[in-house]
Amino acid sequence: MIESILRAFGMAFAMGWEILWPLILGFTLSAVVQAVVSHRQMSRLLPDDRPASIAKALALGAASSSCSYAAVAISRSIFRKGTDFAAAMAFEMASTNLVVELAIIMLVFLGWQFTLAEFVGAPIMVALLIVLFRIFLNRRLLNEAKEQADKGVVGRMEGHAEMDMSVSEGGTLWQRVTSEQGFTAISHYFVMDWASVWMDIAGGLLMAGALGAWIPAEFWQSFFLADYPLLAKIWGPIIGPLVAVISFVCSVGNIPLAAVLWNGGISFGGAIAFIFADLIILPILNIYRKYYGLKMAGFLFVTFYAAMAGAALVVELIFGALGLVPAQRNARVVEALVTWNYTTWLNIVFLVLAGLLVWRFLKTGGPAMLRMMNRPSAMGHAH
């Protein structure tokens, strides 16, 4: 038993070591984008669910934090300020599926095919969701959700959702990024994003290590119908989101889990559906209940699930027809071994970068702001 537990922890540590520098790079790039892209005008930019507004929602979401909880909180905030509900949900989906840190981690763990599939599938998923909203979302349910949203019930990462330190003036893009104010903003976004998702990343690594070490390959192959290729392609997108629902892991933390499931036999579309489904895990469904009421929470679960499974199935068909589905299941679920290779050197370099950003954060009032992350703006903190 002890040996098995140590092996699980060892695999979790090894996977964490493999993705450390990509995580730091991804969160740094994300912080740079957030530091120069303001969210203050979102409610004005997203007044309806027409294609132009949805495209803007996707772009704004891609420029936001990858934290699922922050994305959900931001979506409610802009909905209360006048954003169309469908556009707010499109923004939410983009925040967790089109961000740069997710792409980098997927590239390292799963390969370029999965990364491309994520960026192809996310807009398809949003399009399906908009269609479902137009067909099934009635005015009465929407009004009830708006009334509940206006109550301002606290969820999670409220302060992070309200945070806006973007530098919109002061010269060229490069000048804004390299200015004192820009450096401070980048450091704050960097640390806030880490603080938002570290538990999900750690949880995902530990769960992936445990599943990889304890669950035999035969179980996964049977569960995912690996011996029946046609059925597996249909079953994967159906079961993938349901596995995500009970995993409690969201944001980039579910990528190691997706790697374990892919190596275990889940279909290509099933793995993509699992990654899509970080917005319907049980803790977030409970936040939907607080934000919008029980009926809307149920509606969001059903429509999100249908859009995620449907988009994953479309991706499976498209990539299968183009011959882009990887032939080998060799996602990097590695053994516990750290050597002086390029990963170690890159980790050292990016740890130095992270140290500089944390130092700037500590020197510019960051700790006080960090204490406010789970408090909404109505409780008195500034943006």
Q: What does the model show?
A:
With 383 residues, the protein is mainly alpha-helical. The protein has one domain. The chain contains 19 helices and no strands. Helix 4 packs parallel to helix 16, helix 14 runs antiparallel to helix 15 and helix 15 runs antiparallel to helix 17.
Task: Describe, in short, the structure shown.
With 383 residues, this protein is an all-alpha fold. Helices cover 73% and strands 0% of the residues.
Residue share in β-strands: under 5%
Number of domains: 1
What can be said about the biggest beta sheet? none
Number of helices: 19
Tell me the structural class.
mainly alpha
Number of strands: 0
Residues in helix, % = over 70%
Let me know the average pLDDT.
85
How far apart are the first and last residues' alpha carbons, in Å?
Answer: 49 Å
Shape: globular
How would you spell out the order of helices and strands? HHHHHHHHHHHHHHHHHHH
| Gyration radius over CA | 20 Å
Question: What low-confidence regions span 5 or more consecutive residues with pLDDT below 50?
Answer: 379-383
What are the main properties of this structure?
383 residues; mainly alpha; 0% strand; globular; disordered C terminus
Summarize the topology.
Layout: H1 2-36, H2 42-45, H3 51-62, H4 68-80, H5 85-97, H6 100-109, H7 112-136, H8 139-149, H9 158-162, H10 173-178, H11 180-214, H12 217-223, H13 229-245, H14 254-264, H15 268-276, H16 282-292, H17 294-321, H18 342-363, H19 366-370
Helix pairs in contact: 1-6, 1-11, 1-18, 3-5, 4-5, 4-16, 5-7, 6-7, 7-15, 7-17, 11-14, 11-18, 13-15, 13-17, 14-15, 15-17, 16-17
